[in-house]
Amino acid sequence: MQGLAVDDAAWASPWRTRAVGDKAALSLGLVLCALLLPPWPGALIVTVVALGAAVGAARTPLRPVLRALTAPAAFIALGAVSVAVTVTATPDWSVGVTADSARRALEVSGHAIAGTSAVLLLAVTTPMIDILAGLRRLRVPPACIDVAAVMYRFLFVLLSSVRTIRQSQTARLGYSSPRRSLHSAGLLTAAVLIKSWDRASRLEAGLAGREFGDAVSADPVDRQRSSPTFLGAVVVVLGAVVALSLLGHRA
């Protein structure tokens, strides 16, 4: 069974041997910067630093990073359109884009892209099993960790179902024409939804029939000690991001 590109990148990342807390400090710090700093130039600086750390410092291949950003970017674009388009009822009904709505759409998009890039930095450097083990050490309720682990595994089941059904449709020339492609896509969606519902019901029954908290075992790599040098570098980087953002905003 093939895995997610982000998950594969995380397992192969040179930063996997670093403590989860160190990487989380950098990622969450950048998320806070993306939320609190002015969108210009704060969002741009956070995005550059996050992607630069993922591709440069952590040596993650650029292709999976860009692929992982594609879907969030599409949702962000749709959200930006809904913010930019305004509807007025007085004195007459009108639909349009104003300078203020366009500015707000750009600001929201900047915050969203910066925050997504910061979270992606943690995703491409830390496997999910390490994150769950770290949450267990933070005394997060075992039931929450158990549900998260089951949902994580469910993703691979879902992707495997989609891949198998699509290969079968392709072998039967289901995508040989636009009309057949549309028909096959509808059948694929229906089949995956039914399989997902059935699988989710069985997973729910399995959770209800056993004790919580034993879904994931801690990996020895996750117990790596925190690095004071790395944390010091994180503080310096976050401080530089804040300073450059505020100076650029005032200028």
Uncertain runs are 215-222
Strand order of the largest sheet: 1-2
Compute the number of structural domains: 2
* Largest sheet data: 2 strands, antiparallel
Estimate what percentage of residues fall within beta strands: under 5%
SS content category = mainly alpha
Number of strands: 2
- The overall average pLDDT, rounded, is 83
Please write the string of helix (H) and strand (E) elements.
Answer: HHHHEEHHHHH
Number of discrete helical segments: 9
Give the end-to-end Cα distance, rounded to a whole number of Å. 52 Å
Shape: globular
Task: Write the SSE topology.
Layout: H1 5-12, H2 20-36, H3 39-57, H4 62-84, E1 85-88, E2 94-97, H5 99-123, H6 128-137, H7 142-171, H8 178-208, H9 228-250
Antiparallel strand pairs: 1-2
Q: Can you characterise this structure?
A:
Helices cover 74% and strands 3% of the residues. It is mainly alpha-helical and 251 residues long. The protein folds into two domains: 139 residues, no CATH class; 70 residues. Strands 1-2 form a two-stranded antiparallel sheet. The chain is globular.
Short structural description:
The chain is mainly alpha-helical and 251 residues long.
Brief descriptors of the model:
two-stranded antiparallel ribbon, Cobalt_transport_CbiQ, 2 domains, globular, single chain, mainly alpha, 9 helices, 2 strands, 251 residues, ECF_CbiQ
